[in-house]
Predict the 3D structure of the following.
Amino acid sequence: MSAPVRRGEPTLASVTDQVSAIVLQRPTGRIWLLAFALALALTALLGAGISYLLAKGVGIWGVDMPVAWAFAIADYVWWIAIGMAGTFISAALYLARQEWRTSLNRYAEAMTVFAVSVSGIFPILHLGRPWFFYWLAPYPDRMGVWPQWRSSLLWDFFAIVAYLIVSILYFYVGLIPDLATLRDRAHTRGKQVFYGLLALGWRGEARHWQRFETLSLLLAGLAVPLVFSVHSMVALDFSEALLPGWHSTIFPPFFVAGALFSGFAMVLVLGIPLRRFYGLGDFITERHLDNLAKMLLAAGLFVDYSYLSEIFTAFYGGDRYEIAMTMQRFTGAYAWVFWTTIACNVVAIQALWWARVRRHHGVLFALGIVVLVGMWFERFMLIASSLYRDFLPSSWGMFYPTLWDLAFLFGSIGLFFVLFLLFVRWLPLVSMYELRKLAHRHGGTAA
Amino acid sequence: MKASHGCLAQFASVPALLAAVKQLRLDGYTRLEAYTPFAVDGLAEALGPVRSRIPLLMLLGGLLGGFGTLALQYYAAVIDYPIDVGGRPDASWPAFIPAALEMTILFAALAGVAGMLAGNGLPRLNHPLFGSEHFDEASRDGLFVLLRADDPRYEIGRVLHDLARLDPLHVEQVPR
């Protein structure tokens, strides 16, 4: 017997009241305010950085030839990867009929929407003239030219746009019945109007529910291949180039595994404090954390396999540039980045084999952070170690980050948390109508 | 008296609601609606024949998105602005697939969401049921059946009698 999905004797009313009270009755709280103030301050830093960048250009970052991609692209890949897991958890577990997903899918989907939104800032700012970013879209312009359809950068643009819109739709459609619940339970006029407008007039008629369920199933079916395709496109940005270390067919699956790995880590990092501060222990149980930890380990092993496979292929293929690049990763100027990645993503996660580790929330939280750090370093390692020494020794050179590079990284984390904290205050953290369905299925018809 | 939207009855349990719907259908009512706080399996079928157009709509949306994007790329790269890159064919179909794939999924999802909202008559700002005293519970734990006033069998005395047989928690007339 494994631990239950849901503790206690839930009824339709009790799950509804418990989740909606977090939004409607619970006072804001000092910890939330403190976290929000910190996140806002970091966002202000990002805002300052963006303003300065628009005025001066990308030269405020440390990028230059030969390392013309660095922090911004690492930040972008890191964020969009985090944004993969929410939809994947929600959709794949829905298709697999895993009931335990019900407690996690809402905040994981919110995480996805915010992470993808944040990630989109970086490639746009990296364009050099960000105000012309719309040139990426195909439209009949007066210049008479079209985007380059054969470029992976264009594929990436289409992938991000499609993923952002589909993940917002998926998140919002799933919210509609819960917004109706909040509309019906709200006591102030302002909240009634706010949630009433967002709920679009949802009433829960049987045939409405049926269309809703059909759509949820089909959207989930579309979202899973979308997740895989989008992060594969991100990987193609690299593998379409000819550089040693990038020009490799393993990149798309390798990137997808990395995306799920860092995404599960973020779901744990967000879920453990939510559970603690919002009394969600009834919903996010030991079993959820245990399952997430196992999924984190599984995704991590896929990533580790990819590391091994990359190294093996370099030596087995015998290409001298690939071998030189691999040796540079082990011993070159950025070796410490490589070994940090290995320490975080290969060594540290092996602790998850032990059930005692998976049950200890503090350790799980710390491991989640370690994995997120490790995955950021991995992206930076992949980018910098291939760029700083390519085929010609005359074009070798180092990359050194500026303070603005750091400001953009930490500022983007601030922006993500501003959005997520607002979500925590304004929207239901757990999907109430799915909890009601579960309560009905397991508790008979206690109404 | 004000015109009525219908008669709303609340039931205590899902089996009672399903039984009530089936009995009312047997009685010959056709403009029946049932409101529940979650998707109850089999309830929509019990209310009458259902036909969902959402899968077809999503298929059409996906086809439009996919083939539309392929057509756009073909037009742009072959007809409107061909660029000769070392003699390679202008219509580079393998390279056209990624954008087309993403647009297939995007358009299918957009068509599905639009279809769900349109099929359900949403969004709408108000509805007679929101004037009901008990209807707030429909998004918490209330299970309701509505007999609409435009039903050919609708006659208030008969409706109240037919509903009372089914042991509802309470019955309420909803003004239009």
Remarks:
- The two ends of chain A are 28 Å apart (CA to CA).
- Chain A is about 70% helix and 0% strand.
- Residues 152-185 of chain A form the longest helix (34 residues).
